[in-house]
Design goal:
CATH class of the largest domain in chain B: Mainly Alpha
Radius of gyration of chain B: 22 Å
Distance between the termini of chain A: 26 Å
Helix content of chain A: over 70%
Number of helices of chain A: 16
Structural class of chain A: mainly alpha
Number of strands of chain A: 0
Distance between the termini of chain B: 53 Å
Helix content of chain B: 40-55%
Strand order of the largest sheet of chain B: 1-2
Shape of chain A: globular
Largest interface: A-B, 76 and 76 residues
CATH superfamily of the largest domain in chain B: Cytochrome c-like domain
Order of helices and strands of chain B: HHHEEHHH
Shape of chain B: elongated
Largest sheet of chain B: 2 strands, antiparallel
Largest sheet of chain A: none
Number of strands of chain B: 2
Oligomer: heterodimer
Radius of gyration of chain A: 22 Å
CATH topology of the largest domain in chain B: Cytochrome Bc1 Complex, Chain D, domain 2
Strand content of chain B: under 5%
Order of helices and strands of chain A: HHHHHHHHHHHHHHHH
């Protein structure tokens, strides 16, 4: 760690991991409700568990992105953060607002929460992933603006690098497209059309810029490959991301009342969305092969390569699986969508967050470059347990989804939704058991922060 | 090869490509807006009688987080049935929808998924049913494939 103010990242990373645990616990509750329908009913209906599961994910990823920015921007810009105190203040505002929102979900009925937070004044609640009370959304805007100001001023006064620039563009896009969450007309078609400007243009647009910038930063640091080479790759990857991903929004405009030409635009452009993810895989492996040094933090390297592979599988391959309009006609809103969602979010955004945490945490904890060998081995156990679990969760949900699409939508005698759900319960049980293994993996991962703290960093042979 | 393709070229592809395709996206959005009135069941929304009811129905839909279990036109959670076409599935009967919501047992059904009892007033039930009827009138290009959603 070269600059004192980078240390603020530690707060963000720790809070992110705390929310990660909450996300998984509530995921397990939902998974159980899928097969034991009355579990915790009526005290915690499925929708409440789901809000906590998805909202905790979103917030912890945002925390991790902000932590990543506070860590890497000063180092890239070669200057202290413009306003470290603002970063700390915003952390507490964000963390307390997130905590209060989750408490609201758990302690009040959702309609009471809407009344309490005066949803009537500017109704934005009750839409998937955007369930937060309007006041929380306004808080997110304030935090995002303060964050961008802080990062922007730091970049302005320091060295301008491509990584910083791309990261800043991604984060600015994130803030700008979030503003569409305040547009909520009664017309359902319009509501849905612009809801995707938040959701799709985040995860298949600007977030990929953030992902690319963080990955490029970690690869420069761990491989020692020339910055020029890595920056060229970064540009071409994010170019392909936005060239395919912006019109690729059309794959959400097949069946929601939008014109039918979107079936062509959406199919063709989103079929190309795997390309940037494949390039990212090639890029990461190439850079590691061409490395000029052997970095002692092997765990961070594993996470970086894991991100490149799993993002391609989850976002690229599993996305392509159901993105063509004639296929999507049968799979839209089924367990296939859930399967893709799980591996894409884990592979792309969870893993890049854990990559930067793995890379930066040793320094933030006062070490030179890496954790002890024992800690790293433990961390890698966590990596494999969680990653293999998510692969099987995805496969089981895919099995469930194929059967669901067939029985409910394609067979000779289409079967009602709930009858189909009973028939495919086996897959939900397998998913739940795998979810428990994921939780064990997460515990193993977290325990790696507490082992071998007094042991030295591993020694590495100097590469030729 | 490495020399032929420079960082500047990569950068220009990024800026140029992003700008071009974002403008194309805006153009398609503009065109879509032109077509929405013929597809989005605007007549129901603009009817002085039904419009306010549908607006109340959507508000209730949102303030009870229905999307947290159900899908609407395929978007939402996959825990409970699709509701974009529930009006058609229930025999084009608002009464059937209202009766279903009204009759949910407070403590659920042992061992099974069940919908909470929301204690809606008759006016609210009617508004929700009207909202679901309105959604069923949106032109979704023949999705879902059949009445089961």
């Amino acid at each position: 760690m070269k600059y004192k103010s980078q240390k603020v990242a530690r707060l963000y990373f720790i809070a992110a991991l705390v929310l990660f645990v909450a996300q998984i616990l509530f995921g397990l509750i939902m998974g159980l409700q899928y097969v034991m329908g009355d579990f915790l009913f009526p005290y915690m209906p499925f929708n409440v568990a789901r809000m906590v599961h998805t909202n905790a994910l979103i917030v912890w990823l945002l925390m991790a992105f902000m932590g990543a920015a506070y860590y890497l921007v000063p180092e890239e810009a070669e200057t202290e953060l413009a306003m470290p105190w603002l970063a700390t203040l915003m952390f507490w505002i964000f963390f307390l607002a997130a905590g209060a929102t989750v408490a609201g979900y758990l302690l009040l009925s959702y309609s009471d929460l809407a009344k309490l937070t005066m949803n009537d004044m500017l109704p934005t609640m009750g839409r998937e992933f955007l369930e937060q009370p309007t006041i929380t959304k306004l808080g997110i805007v304030v935090v995002a603006l303060a964050f961008l100001l802080n990062i922007g001023l730091t970049i302005l006064k320091g060295r301008k690098t491509v990584i910083n620039l791309v990261l800043l563009m991604g984060l600015t896009g994130l803030a700008v497209f979030f503003l569409f969450s305040f547009y909520n007309p009664t017309n359902v078609v319009l509501d849905k059309y612009y809801w995707w400007w938040v959701v799709h243009l985040w995860v298949e647009g600007v977030w990929e810029l953030i992902l690319g910038a963080i990955l490029a930063f970690v690869l420069i640091k761990t491989t020692g490959v020339d910055r020029e080479v890595i920056e060229k790759w970064l540009y071409i990857i994010i170019a392909m991301t936005l060239i395919t991903g912006i019109i690729g929004t059309g794959h959400h405009y097949y069946w929601i009342g939008t014109p039918e030409y979107w079936q062509w635009w959406g199919s063709i452009f989103s079929a190309m969305e795997p390309i940037p993810f494949f390039m990212m895989t090639v890029f990461a492996f190439n850079m590691v092969n061409k490395r000029r040094r052997n970095h002692p933090n092997k765990a961070a390297m594993l996470w970086a390569l894991g991100t490149a592979v799993m993002a391609f599988l989850g976002a690229g391959v599993w996305g392509f699986l159901h993105t063509l309009a004639p296929v999507n006609y049968y799979t839209h809103g089924s367990q296939i969508t859930a399967a893709h969602g799980h591996m894409a979010f884990y592979g792309a955004y969870v893993m890049i967050s854990l990559t930067i945490i793995s890379y930066a945490m040793p320094m933030l904890m006062g070490r030179t470059a890496a954790n002890s060998n024992r800690s790293q081995v433990r961390e890698m156990w966590g990596f494999w347990l969680m990653t293999i679990s998510i692969v099987f969760i995805t496969l089981f949900l895919t099995g469930a989804g194929v059967l669901q699409a067939f029985l409910q939508r394609m067979g000779e005698n289409p079967t009602p939704f709930m009858v189909v759900q009973d028939k495919i319960a086996l897959f939900y049980w397998l998913r739940e058991i795998t979810g428990v293994v994921f939780l064990i993996g997460l515990i193993v991962y977290l325990s790696s922060f507490f082992v071998g703290r007094n042991e030295p960093e591993p020694e590495v042979a100097v590469a030729e | 090869m490495a020399q032929a393709f420079t960082k500047t070229m990569a950068r220009n592809i990024f800026y140029g490509g992003t700008l071009f395709f974002f403008l194309l996206f805006l153009a398609l959005t503009f065109d879509s807006h032109g077509q929405f009135p013929s597809r989005d069941n605007r007549a129901a929304l603009e009817s002085p009688d039904l419009g306010p009811k549908i607006a109340l129905g959507k508000k209730l839909w949102e303030e009870n987080d229905c999307i947290g279990c159900h899908t609407l036109l395929g978007e939402g959670a996959y825990f409970a049935p699709e509701l974009g076409n529930v009006y058609k599935r229930f025999g084009e009967s608002k009464e059937a929808i209202m009766g279903f919501i009204k009759s949910r047992p407070k403590d659920g059904v042992p061992g099974r998924r069940s919908m909470p009892q929301f204690n809606f007033t008759d006016e609210e039930l009617d508004a929700l049913a009207e909202f679901l009827k309105y959604v069923s009138g949106i032109n979704t290009s023949h999705w879902p494939p059949n009445v089961n959603g």
